[in-house]
What does this fold into?
Amino acid sequence: MPARKGKRATAAPRRTAARKAVEAVQPAARQRIRVTVNGHPYEADVEARTLLVYFLRDTLGLTGTHVGCDTTSCGACTVLLNGEAVKSCTLFAVQADEAEILTVEGLAKDGELHPLQKAFWEDHGLQCGFCTPGMLMTAYAFLMENPHPSEEEIRVAISGNLCRCTGYMNIVKAIQHAAQEMAAR
Amino acid sequence: MFPAPFEYVAPSTLDQAIRLLQQYGADARLLAGGQSLIPMMRFRLANPKVLIDLNRIPGLDFLEEDRGVLRIGAMVRHRAMERTPLIQQRYPLLADTARVIADPIVRNRGTVGGSIAHADPAGDWGAALLAAKAEVVITGPKGRRMGQRTLPLEDFFTGPFMTALQPGEIVTEIRVPAPGPREAGAYLKIERKVGDFAVVAVGVQIALDADGVCRKAGIGLCAVGPTSLRAREAEEWLIGKRPDESVIARAGELAAEASQPTSDTRGPAEYKRDMVRVLTVRALRKALERIPMA
Amino acid sequence: MATTGQAHVVLGHPVRRKEDLRFIQGRGRYLDDIVLPRMAYMALVRSPYAHARIRSIRTDAAKAVPGVLAVITGEDLEELGLAWMPTLAGDKQMVLAVGKVLFQYQEVAAVVAESREAAVDGAQAVEVDYEPLPVVVDPFKALEPDAPILREDREQKTNHIWHWEVGDREATEEALHRSEVVIREHIKFQRVHPAPLEPCGCIADFDRVTGRLTLYVTSQAPHAYRTLLALVTKLPEHMIRVISPDIGGGFGNKVAVYPGYVCAIVASMMLGRPVKWVETRTENLTSTSFARDYHMTVELGATREGKVTALRVKTLADHGAFDASANPSRFPAGLFSICTGSYDFPVAFAEVDAVYTNKAPGGISYRCSFRVTEASYLIERAMDILADELGMDPAELRRRNFIPPEKFPYRSALGWTYDSGNYVAALDRALELIGYPELRREQEERRRRGELMGIGISSYTEIVGAGPSHTFDIAGLKMFDSCEIRVHPNEF
It folds into this structure.
């Protein structure tokens, strides 16, 4: 219970520790961050205001993650942060310090496409391809926690990702298809 | 768009965060889930000089029922509210609400405390937690030790995007009375599309006595006023009555009267007011269906 | 790699697309993925007002922002003769506002900087002093005598842009007068925005040594771009290379040349560096090509037996601040005269008046921007209203009025030749496939239960693609496979 711990913080040694900690946490306009992206460690000096998506795209050159809007609506920038799908346009790179990130570039393993990638290809789950990385990452995170989804559950899961080409039919089909493939393994 | 330059700091204790807030005053903003603040910063509608990130402070995301009170740590994500069995089983009003906030990916980041402190009159938690008769626990500096105070949520919202928070204070917890027997709730929302703010949303919480008479009622209205609103007259109307269709219909009318919608791109005021009525009726029906009567 | 279907057999088999392999691995190359050495970034300052006079623009503070390399205003462009550019519809459009702004979010100044963020910082620091003017957003009000004149640059002091008509006015009037039944309806086809998921953007790379311009751009029409850019920049076409990389959706939104591209080109020429400009979603939705915005009044005459006798259409077309739609040069209202649809009208008359309003320039959008969508909606809606008026099944009404197979090749009352068809057979087959009588029975049952169930019927005769080659061109560009030798003498 945090409030109780707060009460106890009046003890002298703790106060010293707290003061030290305050000195250690100084606001800064730039910060050195360490992240693991698709299994590779990276270290970089970033401006505090750099959004994670631009860190991935501009600093690391991982341009598979796209920017389609400025209001956290389209989901084209979806990546996995410590295993959870996030919109990387609505997170500062400094917040990802020490985090594990997975982007679309990390889906295929040893030259072998992930079942989701195969299914999107097979079932025509994309047209212009711009929403595809975000769709794939959302679907990836979703199937991790729900390996046997219904169509309805898939539609809810991708409701934060916009596609302007396909009308979603084939995207849903591809995710169903991939779920079956993965279950059969 | 890109935010204006700012300085970032991620304290590891609440104490540090409060000290930083005191030190930087109005120049500082707290960062919780960031799903409202960061878009606002991208549009430069918010330009904090110092951003204090609460995400590295452990112990702010507890979610538990303790002696008749549901304690929601301020950093609990919408996702946890959506998925935690305790919430799903005992607090259908809150589980309903979590499911319709923004979209599933945003819900992975957004927090209950951040949403309440943001005080957007179109925020879903405001209306839902008003219906739940929630209280806000605020932690701030006081004297030589950490000070805490508790406010009814109704008193916490003071205007659009305005709260009763004083300089140096942080929302650390939301408390919701645990449901008694024969008590349930529901939250219904009309939205133009997934991820959009509500055109109108209504949250209700209702409890019956053994004879099926209403002994407790809470109704919260979303996006139809300068703050999230409580429909008090509708609540009072219900108490002491058997909530049959005609009683519920009247409660809907009273809730509509309590709303203060304005016309905008999401619809004319007249339509929104009528939707308050419709959603109140439907939410009450749904809540009542959820009450197991012996 | 397994292939789907048999080798060499394409028709009737699903085919896996070749480009998908890169898209599903995040290896597409869209515009914003491209980085050139020494590349600078541009951001635009846009007007918060829909109509305002610009009293002054102060750029000192913007120029002092760290990282900012240049600030360009309409006045700067005027000195270069680049403040205006031609539109695809023969009008001209401001590149950066000169004197006044005509729609909200109109481009007012461009800021070039070392980074994306610094460009936005600079744009925020540009101070523009506006004097708000009365705003006209209703095309009908734009034609009222006391309406403010929006386009002061034009000689004609009116918001009326052009009038276009086709068909026989008198004969139609007479036929309507004689008709046993006449239905009349105002139909508004609202503005639509294509909203591709990838916003528009470009990298302009002008090489000062060779004098060549390379433009990487989110373009659906790179050849048209080259021609228009030659007109704007006065560079000969062979010195301009337009590269369309992977495009994140277009739907018509990426046909027009936008002011941002011209600004980036100017900036690249000024700085001798590549300049990238990528608009935000907000900019995309507020300032790039819209389409439709037709206010149509239709009158349709018929006999009591449901045989159509005449069609008259009067349309007010809201073109926004600049006439930037992309219609064939000879048809300012596009192929709107296809509005007799698939039906055998003995006589018809259509007229369109285009007006300026304080809105973003209209342009191009999916499902044919040559006004075929508007025309189809108009006639199909009118047929439904007539069916309702006559108490006749809408399928039966259409069956009675389709151009009969023996009349092909058929010349419509508004001048188009329909080469072949058997519409009745097609309709009957469609009705059979969907089980039309059963659906109607279900509808009746549901209605008895107080439920609503709608059944929609529509036919669509379209002039496919770029239409008959002998009549079609945009800004001198033929819209079919052809070769043309053009001579652009350089000025000395």
